[in-house]
């Protein structure tokens, strides 16, 4: 039985490649740095949990023993707190090719349509650099360059596409000149299997894409119809400066670990167009990729699809709301502690307890408000908000039960915030 390794095995393309290779009879090992993401993707698969750029040449030689095919589906869109483009696209591939230089195996590189050394984004330039290293150093390789990949799962740009097309009542109109082509994840997975089984010639570079391109606003409209939503009441054209500002804000969030599809790299790539030429693929004997209409026919828009699309923007809105609420709650208390202390002092609470409760609570509020903005701590911060809110409610029952009967309902208003924190905790999921 042939053996395959898939780098980035729990990503959108990596997971599909692993499933397709197993169906084709390969023994498959996936590599990724997150145990939880790997087990969520496929708990029955064989996983090697490693940070791919950290794997040395000597370690690669150990992992590659007896391997027939390596599929590189790992990658990152933009530098950030969790990602280094040079490390993942260049360094890791350089070490892999050096380790495989004398081995009888094939490397299947999942690149991207439009990569070049002169591209407008670091993503495409680093991908092109990695492709060049592979082509110059490896003995047997195939480079597949898909356009926008559509799949039952939704990550990054395809998730944003679903969310934007599902906005109630309105349809954003951005970058009307941008041309987009798509490819069905099943076609891409089949191409990976064909390359792994030797059905494609060695040293082949080809785009995987449908033939027809369409303006991005038209693609949004088609996805909206596929999801089953009514026609929008308003088409809102977003000015370029606003889109640029959104990209810069998303870049800042990237420093906190958020891989937003609104980051400047994604927006620039969309502006340049996501297109390819399928001629090389078809000339090599590949079956023509499905059109957008054929792809959507294979991806029924279920209730889960619509719920995901409608909740896509609800999660960041909930996180931002909680952050503002808790940060301002802490700041207001610190700027005017006497008012908070008065609530406790009139009820004969000892001064040391009052000071500890007021200032300690304010600092805890600030800490949780800022922590929820950091991707790594979001779920923990949401749980902390639930716990601290529960402590506030319990303390009020002991010290100031009369506040529960206040006409403005200061204690009752804690419950919506707790519900929002619970929603964030439930909805957060790592890729």
Automatic annotation (TrEMBL):
<dbReference type="Pfam" id="PF13781">
    <property type="entry name" value="DoxX_3"/>
</dbReference>
<dbReference type="InterPro" id="IPR016040">
    <property type="entry name" value="NAD(P)-bd_dom"/>
</dbReference>
<keyword id="KW-1133">Transmembrane helix</keyword>
<feature type="transmembrane region" description="Helical">
    <location>
        <begin position="381"/>
        <end position="399"/>
    </location>
</feature>
<dbReference type="GO" id="GO:0044877">
    <property type="term" value="F:protein-containing complex binding"/>
</dbReference>
<dbReference type="InterPro" id="IPR025695">
    <property type="entry name" value="DoxX-like"/>
</dbReference>
<dbReference type="InterPro" id="IPR036291">
    <property type="entry name" value="NAD(P)-bd_dom_sf"/>
</dbReference>
<feature type="transmembrane region" description="Helical">
    <location>
        <begin position="355"/>
        <end position="374"/>
    </location>
</feature>
<protein>
    <submittedName>
        <fullName>Oxidoreductase</fullName>
    </submittedName>
</protein>
<dbReference type="InterPro" id="IPR051207">
    <property type="entry name" value="ComplexI_NDUFA9_subunit"/>
</dbReference>
<feature type="transmembrane region" description="Helical">
    <location>
        <begin position="411"/>
        <end position="428"/>
    </location>
</feature>
<dbReference type="Pfam" id="PF13460">
    <property type="entry name" value="NAD_binding_10"/>
</dbReference>
<keyword id="KW-0812">Transmembrane</keyword>
<keyword id="KW-0472">Membrane</keyword>
<feature type="transmembrane region" description="Helical">
    <location>
        <begin position="312"/>
        <end position="335"/>
    </location>
</feature>
<feature type="domain" description="NAD(P)-binding">
    <location>
        <begin position="8"/>
        <end position="153"/>
    </location>
</feature>
């Amino acid at each position: 039985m042939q053996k395959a390794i898939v780098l980035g095995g729990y990503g959108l393309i990596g997971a599909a490649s692993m499933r397709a290779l197993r169906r084709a009879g390969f023994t498959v090992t996936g590599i990724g740095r997150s145990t939880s993401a790997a087990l969520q993707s496929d708990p029955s698969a064989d996983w090697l949990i490693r940070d791919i750029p950290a794997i040395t040449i000597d370690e690669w030689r150990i992992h590659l023993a007896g391997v027939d095919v390596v599929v590189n589906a790992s990658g990152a869109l933009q530098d950030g707190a969790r990602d280094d483009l040079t490390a993942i696209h260049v360094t890791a591939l350089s070490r892999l090719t050096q380790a495989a230089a004398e081995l009888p195996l094939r490397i299947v590189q999942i690149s991207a349509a439009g990569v070049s050394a002169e591209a407008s984004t670091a993503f495409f330039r680093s991908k092109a650099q990695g492709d060049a290293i592979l082509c110059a150093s490896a003995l047997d390789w195939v480079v597949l360059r898909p356009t926008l990949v559509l799949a039952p799962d939704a990550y990054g740009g395809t998730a944003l596409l679903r969310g934007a097309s599902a906005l109630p009542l309105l349809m954003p109109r951005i970058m009307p000149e941008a041309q987009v082509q798509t490819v069905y994840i099943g076609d891409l997975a089949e191409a990976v299997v064909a390359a792994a089984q030797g059905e494609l010639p060695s040293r082949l570079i080809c785009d995987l894409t449908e033939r027809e391109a369409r303006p991005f606003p038209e693609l949004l409209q088609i996805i909206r119809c596929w999801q089953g939503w009514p026609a929008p009441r308003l088409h809102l054209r977003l000015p370029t400066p606003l889109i640029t500002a959104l990209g810069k804000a998303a870049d800042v969030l990237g420093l906190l670990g958020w891989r937003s599809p609104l980051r400047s790299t994604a927006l620039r790539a969309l502006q340049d167009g996501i297109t390819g030429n399928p001629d090389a693929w078809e000339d090599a004997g590949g079956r023509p990729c499905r059109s957008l209409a054929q792809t959507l026919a294979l991806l029924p828009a279920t209730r889960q699809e619509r719920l995901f699309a409608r909740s896509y923007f609800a999660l960041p809105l909930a996180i931002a709301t909680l952050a503002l609420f808790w940060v301002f709650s802490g700041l207001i208390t610190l700027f005017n502690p006497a008012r908070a202390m008065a609530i406790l002092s009139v009820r004969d609470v000892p001064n040391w307890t009052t000071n500890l409760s007021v200032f300690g609570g304010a600092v805890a509020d600030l800490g949780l408000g800022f922590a929820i903005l950091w991707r790594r701590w979001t779920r923990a911060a949401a749980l902390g908000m639930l716990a601290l809110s529960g402590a506030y409610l319990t303390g009020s029952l002991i010290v100031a039960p009369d506040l529960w009967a206040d006409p403005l309902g200061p204690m009752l208003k804690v419950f919506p915030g707790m519900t929002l924190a619970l929603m964030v905790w439930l909805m957060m999921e790592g890729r």
